[in-house]
Amino acid sequence: MYILGTGNISAQKTFGHVPFLTEAVEYTGNRLSCIEPDYKAFIDAKQIRRMSRIIRIGVAAAMECLREAGVNSPDAIVTGTAYGCLEDTGLFLAKMVEFKEEFLTPTAFIQSTHNTIGAQIGLMLQCNNYNNTFVHRGFSFESALLDAMMLLQEKEAANVLVGAVDEITGMSHTILNRFGSYKQGPVSNFDLYATKSKGTIAGEGAAFFLLANEPSATAYAKLDGLKTFYKPKGIEEIENNILSFLDVHSIALNEIDLVLTGKNGDMRSDKIFAQLQQSIFNKKELISFKHLCGEYPTSTAFALWVAANIIKTGSVPAVFDQKGAKESKINRILIHNHYQGIYHSLILIAAC
Amino acid sequence: MNKLISELKIQIIEQLNLQEVKPEDIADDQALFVEGLGLDSIDALELIVLLQQHYKIKLSNAEEGPKVFRSVKTMAEYITAHQSRNV
Amino acid sequence: MDQRIFVAGVGVISAIGKNLAECLDSLENGRAGIGDMICLDSVHKQKIPVAEVDMSNDDLAHLSGLSKTKSRTALLSVIAAREALNNSGIEDIEALRTGFISANSVGGMDRTEKFFADFFFNNQKGRLRDVVHHECGSITELVADQLGIKDYITTISTACSSSANAIFFGARLIKNNILDVVVAGGTDALTKFTLNGFNTLMILDEQFCQPFDDKRRGLNLGEGAGYVVLVSEKVAASLQKKPAVTLSGFCNANDAYHQTASSPAGTGSYLAMEGALRRSSLQPAQIDYINLHGTGTQNNDIAEGTAIMRLFDPHYPKMSSTKSFTGHTLGGSGGIEAVFSILAVEHGIIYPNLRLQTPMKELPFVPETTLTKNVNIKNVLTNSFGFGGNCTSLIFSKF
Questions:
Q1: Could you tell me how many CB contacts below 8 A there are between chain B and chain C?
Q2: Domain residue limits, chain B
Q3: All structural domains of chain C
Q4: Catalytic residue, candidates C136, C160, C251, C391
């Protein structure tokens, strides 16, 4: 399976025809917000008014992906989102409380449903094909990706538009902060992994991919494998899952040129990455990505975008601060991410 | 009536999030739905809430909508007629 | 790769019964579960009829084994999913690759609403434990953990087609040799959020709904959960009680017409039904019963009816909307109606479409208004069409 196109709106300059992370944007708070494009280039003004921010972000990323892949209408559209459309959910709830269930408006309600993003993409493309939305916390993107891969394997689709979107709103940030999720006090995202404290930084973003059975001349990379595992009991179970994943794909550890890890600066959840660095990954080149995009349930989509671009450009940008010796050519990358220590995902991606 | 029409135009733009439209762009008699401003069924529901919230008028039958919301002028006429009945 | 997918067990809880036997009894005796709002505390209490499960959260907690502080959505889900697993005859799910694919539309919103009532006035107020399971996926996990399933868990949310999509995603996981057993379906509890949301769309009926009636006024919201246990051919062969029903067809298509309304021609509905038939290699004339999506709204019933006309004319199977019994259970509807469809095959029953007085003048067919028993039902088509144009149809067949 091949990645023929991507579209990524994030807290970094990742959207459109831009050089691959030649510079990184610094943030000093615990909330990273998307750098948004001019939507009028992608969406008709009459339709924009019906789309809240997260829908605009998702639609624009999806459209850019299709444009890049040179596909007008995909055979299937599969979306992942853990939180769904938070802004509209919050708006509708607020009005419900404020006006005691009177004078409520339909727009916020309609836009609050989780499948609105995928549905709007389908509507804009007038695409009657398969359209599905996964909403399972740290597995939302991975489930969407598995669905896409199965569709391709089943030959139900020759290509699939697959991606994930999640947003942070004022309300959700406040609530998650109350749960102790984030760093307190000023911290630069560039120093995220050096902070020996609890909490991470909040992120958001939309990343879409055009996956296909056949490569194109401008394909990014080959998607070789995906595995998820849930609530591993300890480091041994994590190691076993990683090793058996590689085994199933007949790949030896030494054939992995780079490991992209989901460290997020929270010392509680980063512990396992430190352990893996000492054990099975002790001879591997490791880089992390959440200092760029922040932490959110569907950040694996951002990681996949990073990995695909590293394979395509053949090098690791300086923003990743890679410590060890750099490989002359990066042929194979293993992504290992986890969200809250509960949802672990492994993705194998290789040069075409 | 003219004051009401001006107010309505501002309220409609706000309620329906018509970002690119200014009050002076909407003619009093201009069709709001399908052609003209190109509003749809969800906008009709929004306008029903607008009538309720700002003018305390309840349009209980959604089928009355196309007639009442044909243009800003018909909306203003409906409001004037029903408000005087409420008094 | 293309093995048969068997239904080893089913489980359900709805306004017409807290388990299979009670629901079947209500269906056979024309007993709808629509009435006054009792559990839900809304200003619309006296005005809008709903189809509530006739149990308080305390009672549901007791029956489910989960704490009563957990979302009602999760409580309903556990009860139905556990019934399905218990009926499946599978003794040890840990010995097999087992997954839980669930669906819902608003997750733990029933508790989030309580949180919000305080949070709105002061953002440091509101009990965090009321929002910790807000997300759709969190509800699924509460249930998966309770059932002891961890090999593969995920949640789908595509409005009213959610649990139908969950069921056939589960089937594909088996066909792709990722899992051996899948508990799949969906759940939704009534919430003020959804009640008010649907109210703003002006598609709620202030009387008891009349699906496919010419004078229909809208839908009644309901709540509940429905799950099926799907197994591979190999697992089916190993069971003492041999499964007799298969999931023979499925299809997900998109209407791509409007955010909430269906296209007049019922494009998405047509494509979903046609695709399911193609997958099952069945001709329209081989369908013995259609469990309609049939919400009772002006829009759905004509769109669905038109699509059925295009596909089945002139051989119309018997059909009915069981939403006339259970109300529209949103994220749970695909699952609950899949269970009813499977029961139809197993018991040879065709359910009536309650309160249908005046047939729709546009359609050349009329849903069944009386119960029929001892019917040889080989193939049942069940429809689930939702907001966002998400349309899914499933076919269950006698093996």
A1: 11
A2: 2-17+29-86
A3: 6-238 (3.40.47.10), 248-398 (3.40.47.10)
A4: C160
| pLDDT tens-digit series, residues A51-100 | 899 999 999 999 999 999 999 999 999 999 999 999 999 999 999 999 99
B22, B53, B54, B58: best to mutate for the A interface, most A CBs within 10 A: B53
Interface chains of chain C (3 or more CB pairs under 8 Å): A, B
Pairwise CB contact (< 8 Å): A116 & C152: no
Q: What is the pTM of this model?
A: 0.96
Residues of B with CB under 8 A from a CB of A: 15-20, 38, 42, 45-46, 49, 52-53
| pLDDT digit string, tens, across residues C23-75 | 999 999 999 999 999 999 999 998 999 999 999 999 999 999 999 999 999 99
CATH node for B2-17+29-86 = 1.10.1200.10
User: Strand runs (DSSP E) across chain C, as ranges?
Assistant: 6-14, 98-103, 152-156, 181-188, 224-231, 245-254, 289-291, 318-320, 379-385, 390-398
Whether residue B86 has pLDDT greater than 60: no
Per-residue tokens: C94? 């840990």
Chain B residues within an 8 Å CB radius of A103: 49, 52-53
Ordered by where they begin, the domains of chain A are: 2-212 (3.40.47.10), 221-350 (3.40.47.10)
CA dist., res. C152 & res. C304, Å (int):
34
Contact by Cβ (8 Å): C269, C385: yes
Minimum Cα–Cα distance from C386: chain A residue: A115
ipTM confidence? 0.97
Structure tokens at C258: 């409007």
Handedness of CA A309, A311, A315, A316 (dihedral sign): positive
Using CA coordinates, name the residue in chain C closest to B63: C202
